[in-house]
# Entry
Amino acid sequence: MAVDEDAAQEFAPKKNKPLTADEKRKKKITPGSLMKAAIRSGDDTSRPADGYQVIFHCTVRTLDGVIVESTRAEHGGNGHPIKYVLGKSKMILGLLEGLSTMSKGEVAVFKMKPELHYGEEDCPVSAPESFPKDDELHFEIEMIDFFKVKVISEDLGVLKRIINEGEGWESPRELYEVKSWITAKTGDGTVILSHTEGEPFFFTFGKEEVPKGLEMGIGTMIRREKAIIYVSSSYLSESPFMPVLDRLEEVQFEVELVYFIQVRDMLGDGRLIKRRIVDGKGEFPMDCPLNDSLLRVHYKGMLLNEERTVFYDTRVNNNGQPLEFGSGEGLVPEGFEMCVRLMLPGEKALVTCPPDYAYDKFPRPDCVPEGAHVQWEIELLGFEMPKEWTGLTFQNIMDEAEKIKSIGNRLFKEGKFELAKAKYEKVLREYNHVNPQDDEEGKIFLSSRNLLHLNVAACYQKMGEHRKSIEACNKVLDASPAHVKAFYRRGIAFMSAGDFDEARNDFKKMITVDKSSEPDATAALAKLRQKEQENEKKARMQFKGLFDKKPGEISEVGTNLDEDEKPEKEQNESEIKSTEREEDKIPEPAQRMGFFWHLWPTGRRFLSAFGFERCSIL
# Structure
């Protein structure tokens, strides 16, 4: 019978984890080399373990009672207890084993053979000068306190002890704005300074406004957390918070992190700033809106003046309804969308925006002056991700296409032709993976795709890209050779591009294909004739009188203009004179030319207008 894979893993032999350096050292302890005698019992409720900081006094004596060294002032020490972090600090083997057996307040004497203190082979700590490291010694230990700490710096120069757990998961990082209550004390409890009344101390993370070690510790805290951060002298950099350090060996900072907000420099130059006021739900940036997402936001727009004048509020000016817009549709200012795209659902943010990313390049509300810096208070209520069309039914695909197409139609009506074209082309890309199942679905699909290509052609036409408009119409006619609307739209594009014969052919084909389109075709042909007449009139005006003078006489183009044509001549007079002045600078040719050369400075300009600039004057 086959054995279940999970069961096999359960009964498989466990692989032994490799021993740590301290565990290897403890294996060297032999019976009788370390003995403990309790002098005074402690609270006996708990014992320190790896990751705990232990604080203790230590007095070392020879077996006949002579004091070798001590931390106690009455025995010649400095009065400061020793602080170690079990599992992190380097210490003699006897203390490594013995400290973990003690409780808070306990006093005990450890009798150690030389190999349990500084006589150990490869001992990680050096013996003090003149220390009898080859003698058996008594170590009297008083366990003052121990507690779990978080090691912030590998050299143990910054440690953190959590007093009260906080809320959430995020910690402040560079450029976050932080508010916290802070009290600084020396190791013996003397208060150096305190910010626990009035307003919490405010600083910007990463700006060296607090000592380096304190900032490192706060960088591991979460909102509403209370902690003590132990900072040694090497991490007590000068700052506005503590300008005078006065040779302190260690400072204990009691910190309550009131709140912090994320400050993101969107452009890298300090102009477009996003400050997060309320956290959102999810992981950044995986749960932020993607391209083409439909976003729902409430926002309030304010001018950055002294009064913070509110010029729009969705809760007031939009009947309390949120603003809905598609990402990438250009329905909101660029700076607004850049910031919303980096928000999580439920997040609130305060965005400060310069004019070129606000309303200088976007329809400006009446009360927003040109060049105004603005501030938006934005709440991202949620967003809908674009649906994957794979696996959808044909009807669902058509419904999704209709939604996107309607957005494109709205953008087209608003004159945002580039954005509208992008919407139409998105649907066309998705259509490449659609396979209609029967003739009826095939007709619906073909009709929808042709209409989208024609919409793209209309966008190109509005954008002045007539050749691309023609290409889009050709795609429709390749699939449906008798498509009247495609002939009409292509004819308009040909006419705009100056291909009058091609345009005339398309308008005539409309009547051939569908007799009911004759009124539209007739109107288009009339417009085409008008366009041709305008071009002919323009050509006659430009060459009028050019060749009706005798040889040797210079004819001025446009000297016999009709009265209604004179204003146009007057408008171009300064331009013509400027051009003639430039042409007067051309050096006189060495060889004498015919009389047409005298016409060249003026006549060349009009010939080049018709594409004859490379022709020789014979």
Observations:
- Residues 1-7, 554-618 have pLDDT under 50 and may be disordered.
